[in-house]
Automatic annotation (TrEMBL):
This is HAD family hydrolase. GO terms for biological process: DNA repair. One of its GO terms (molecular function) is phosphoglycolate phosphatase activity. InterPro entries: HAD-like_hydrolase_sf, HAD-like_sf, HAD-SF_hydro_IA, HAD_2, HAD_sf, PGP-like_dom2.
Length: 233
């Protein structure tokens, strides 16, 4: 393996509660903007219960494409442009929380010392990632950052990894992806990567990471997984 790509929220840092606030605001804006007759049913379909978002729901762990599809179905019309633009506006004004999961930063530095290239592939915007890197003084820890803007490819679409394969001479089987949702794991499947490592430090439960090759508590154990993987090859 040459490259290890980490999801950000819930994998490198503690899951940021500001994302839930954005999700709730997006749903509220959607229901205000469009004539949805049964708003209670819309909340149920989107996974909003008692002003909280269910982790396994489309709003909790779905990609923006999946949220767009859900909004289109509920509104019974194409609201794609509105949804993407409104989501981007909310993301751009987000005040993020950036708290490393214990031991993960030291683990990243250890992997770099061993010669691995380290990247981030996240559903956060470029602005959000830059805020994270500046707040944690960790810009030098990462060789590549792939963020997701309103109209860009996103996980689990394999096209999300185009910046990696366009800029570096690396084979898909030499790439590992580490994340806390099954969309991260599906990215491995769709892009034919070498290994998918699921972590339980974010929003997904163990049984939801169905496409993971290995599941660990936190990303701190990634070096042990890599060692075992190489020994078994």
């Amino acid at each position: 393996m040459k490259w290890i790509l980490f999801d950000k929220d819930g994998t490198l840092i503690e899951f940021d509660k500001s994302w839930e606030k954005i999700g709730l605001r997006l749903v509220d804006s959607f229901l205000d903007e469009f004539p949805i007759e049964n708003k209670e049913e819309a909340h149920r379909q989107l996974g909003v219960v008692d002003n909280a978002i269910l982790p396994e729901s489309v709003m909790g762990s779905g990609s923006l494409d999946q949220i767009v599809d859900a909004f289109n179905n509920i509104a019974d019309q194409d609201v794609s442009t509105w949804t993407r633009n409104t989501s981007q506006q909310l993301v751009d004004t987000r005040v993020p929380e950036n708290n490393w999961i214990d031991g993960v930063y030291d683990m990243i530095k250890s992997l770099k010392n061993e010669g691995y290239n380290i990247g981030i592939v996240t559903s956060d915007s470029k602005k959000g990632v830059l805020q994270f890197l500046e707040a944690t003084h960790s810009k030098d820890a990462f060789d590549l950052v792939i963020s997701t803007e309103a109209h860009a490819a996103e996980k689990p679409n394999p096209a999300v990894l185009k910046p990696l394969f366009d800029s570096y001479d690396v084979k898909d089987e030499d790439v590992v992806i580490v994340g806390d949702t099954n969309n991260d794991m599906k990215t491995k499947v769709n892009a034919k990567l070498g290994l998918a490592i699921g972590v339980l430090s974010g929003i997904a439960k163990k049984e939801e990471l169905i496409d993971a090759d290995v599941i660990i508590e936190t990303a701190v154990s990634v070096p042990e997984v890599l060692k075992t993987h190489f020994e078994n090859k």
